[in-house]
Amino acid sequence: MATRGPSxxxxxxxxxxxxxxxxxxxxxxxxxxxFAWLVEEVxxxxxxxxxxxxxxxxxxxxxxFAWLVTLASLAEVDLAAAAQKYAQGCPRCSATPCVCRHRExxxxxx
Length: 110
Known about the structure:
By secondary structure, the chain is an all-alpha fold. Helices cover 64% and strands 0% of the residues. Helix 1 crosses helix 2. The mean pLDDT is 90.
C-alpha cells in the first residue's frame, strides 16, 4: 500500500494499513495481549489529556486508534462497517445531535 496523506486515509484504508504493518505480529500476541496494549495506550492518552501537550495528544490518539483497529482486525471486525451504527445519528433516538432525554435511554449508549 502506498503512503498517503492523512486526509486521504479513511477508516477502511487505515485498518488495511495497520494490518499490513502489524497483523502477523499481532496474531502471535493474541487478542488478550493486544487488548492489554490498547488499555496501556488509553492510559497514556489519559496522561496526555491532562498535560494538554498538543503533539503528545495527537500521538496518543493515533496510538489508541491503531491498537483499537488491531484488536478489531484480530476479532475479524471491519471497523468501517461497524461505524455504520452511527450513520443515521444517535443509535437510540436517530437524531443528530442526540436528543435522548431519559437516563434509561442513555445507559445503553457508549
